[in-house]
Write a structure and sequence with these properties.
The protein is of the alpha/beta class and 313 residues long. It has a single domain, classed as Ureohydrolase domain (Arginase, Chain A), CATH 3.40.800.10. 33% of the residues lie in helices and 15% in strands. It has nine helices and eight strands. It has helices at residues 41-50, 80-96, 110-121, 152-157, 184-187, 193-199, 232-245, 264-280, 290-304, and strands at 21-26, 68-70, 100-105, 125-130, 159-165, 181-183, 204-210, 247-254. The longest helix is centred in the N-terminal third of the chain and has 17 residues, at 80-96. Bound molecules: manganese (II) ion.
């Protein structure tokens, strides 16, 4: 992967010191069971991002001016456990720098590391999972760091809310909290799920989005597509409300499995990422006063993070 700036933004917005946002690519695809290719997700996502307009019509903002630092990709792949630990350590190091940390996969197992880092850095965290699959197996094919286990740890250590679920094994019912699970077939004809899910969230929310939560009609390029998924505007409507009402501390997007002949899914991922940043920084005006806004932002994040400046990671 060439080292470029995210979305082709100017260097002044891409330097770590000035950037409020850090983007960490994790091109890992070690445990996928069916279609391989999520390792190519970050590259396709970054290429689509470079070809996307950076003015957001809905909010009349240009969130890239908050600064986006593109970190080196995490390439550890000697074992699923080693990858998870590398992600955990890297994510935590950027949280410690008071950045808004975002991760792009790779398969969903990378989120085990990101969630662990956020859970150690913020109090009373809610993990909001948008996904076709429950991913609640304790272990699968000999590893607890398999993509089928991506949310097991979160189910034990955080307030996990699962949205869009439409595929799971019977064994996962023993782990699942059905009160905090929003099945796609129930969401389809009743949109009260949005308010209900938000009511169950604590203040600090971490979001993990498996792109297979979307309907394959709008996002076919994913490892395990499932019919009956979410559509674009209802998803944005929900996510915008979450950002407005909660302190979203970070997010990841995973499981883009690009198809070189059909790039719509890559652009959906790129736009989704940019929309989430847009909603996060909606009330921060970066245009005029980049430096002082940066300081205000980092101090408000710092208030929530458990770390002090001199803590070891
Ligand atoms: Mn998943």
């Amino acid at each position: 992967m060439n080292k470029k700036n995210y979305a082709g933004i100017d260097d002044q917005y891409a330097k770590l010191d000035n950037a409020k946002i850090v983007l960490i690519p994790v091109p890992y695809d070690g445990t996928s069971t069916w279609q391989k290719g999520a390792d190519k997700g970050p590259k396709a996502f970054l290429e689509a991002s470079e070809n996307m307009e950076l003015y957001d019509i809905e909010t009349e903002t240009e969130v890239y001016k908050q600064g986006v630092f593109l970190a080196d990709p995490i390439t550890e792949s000697s074992s699923p456990e080693a990858m998870v630990e590398a992600v955990h350590k890297t994510v935590k190091s950027y949280i410690k720098k008071n950045k808004f940390v975002t991760t792009f996969g790779g398969e969903h197992s990378i989120s085990i590391g990101t969630i662990r880092a956020f859970n150690e850095s913020f109090d009373n965290i809610t993990v909001l999972q948008l996904d076709a699959h429950a991913d609640l197996r304790k272990s699968y094919q000999g590893s607890a760091c398999n993509h089928a286990c991506a949310l097991y740890e979160a189910s034990q250590t955080t307030n996990l809310i699962q949205v869009g679920i439409r595929s799971m094994d019977a064994i996962e019912t023993t782990v699942m909290d059905e009160d905090k699970t929003y099945f796609a077939h129930e969401m389809a004809d009743d949109d009260s799920w949005m308010d209900n899910a938000i009511d169950q969230m604590t203040d600090n929310v971490y979001i993990t989005i498996d792109l297979d939560v979307f309907d394959p009609s709008i996002c076919p390029s994913t490892g395990t597509p499932e019919p009956g998924g979410l559509l674009w505007y209802e998803t944005l409507d929900f996510l915008r409300q979450v950002f407005e009402e909660k302190n979203v501390v970070g997010f990841d997007i995973v499981e883009l499995c690009p198809n070189e002949y059909a790039k719509a899914s890559d652009f959906l991922a790129a736009k989704l990422y940019y929309k989430l940043l847009t909603y996060k920084f909606l009330n921060e005006d970066a245009d005029e006063d980049f430096e002082s806004n940066f300081n205000a932002m980092t101090s408000s994040i710092h208030k929530f993070s458990k770390f002090e400046d001199d803590d070891d990671i």
